[in-house]
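Predict the 3D structure for this chain.
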Amino acid sequence: MVKNNKSSNNRGKGPSQVTKLMLCAKAGGRCQFEGCNKKLFVDGVTLKDVNNSNIAHIVASAPDGPRGNESSYELSDKLENLMLMCQDHHKLIDDNPDQYTIQMLKTMKKEQEQKIEYILDGMDYPESEIIIFESPIKNTIDVNVDHKQTVEAIRSECNNPASSHGIIIRIQNHEKYRSPSYWNSAVRELRYQVEHQIESIYRYRHDLQLSIFPIAPIPLIIKLGNLLGDKRKIDIFQKTRMPDTWIWQSQELTNEFKVEKISLEQGCEVALIVSLTTEIDISRIKNIIDVATIYIIKAERTGVDCIRSMLDLKAFWQEFQAVCDQIKNVDGCLDIKLFPAVPVSAAFEIGRRYMPKTFPIIHIFDECDGFFETITIGGKCDE
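Done. Predicted structure below.
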């Protein structure tokens, strides 16, 4: 076997082209001598592409060479016996084999390659599990989320899918949409699916990031956010029609939000109207609850594109949080009636960032042939 690896000049075989490429890749194109790190494929002055690399042997390719031994011929073309070096350090180690021993050079090679691998691994996109949440709108309009579009969206945020198909949560039942039984059943099913499809993953992947893609009734999206909470890394996405995508349309703040307070002479309830996608007529609220105070959060630009960026979403949340603090800590009210006309991102954030010890209990209303109460977050409903 040794004879077969011996060349005519009494040296072992030289490394193949593939081995050379692998060595360059593992070394990151840098000199592997400890502390050097010189770029070997670009001129330091002219910045032109050059090849100033030397391939050095840890165990010489001949028994009588620097650090040569009985294994020289066998190891001469093996990747684990080769180091990428600049000319100066190649000469240095071969002129001083007693100082630069086999073990010392092996350690240099191993540590340098580990550093390169660590640095390059840091350039990987982190993984995020795609969570698709689907439920028919008003229990009549079927919905579907395109998985390919979700992958495009998370990659726009410098993430890679954690699995090939993601997780699909689909809620559907045959109860009447306005009936309490519909909402009780939907919340039970949502809790079950979150526990068995999402929470089960966290038992062995504690740092997993989630990317949420919801098309569902707004109260259920709020509840999903409430179940997932704000203790883990979660990105929320929302679909736009023009263009047809889930990718956020801006990185800048594109909208502003303001709060209006209306005090009525009679009544006992506090209502919070969030008019982002459309205006909600106050008279419709007065007809269904005995309201004393109405808070209204409005967007300067109302419509389906009222939230175009994560900064828009953050700005909305700051106003929502301030209103909830005002209602509980200044007005002294422990319950509010919420009337949301919001995009899915705002709905999810309302639930996700809900703080049970800080915010009032929130009774969420939806609209289907008039407003009606759906689900509640906070209080015994979250126990």
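The longest strand covers residues 291-299.
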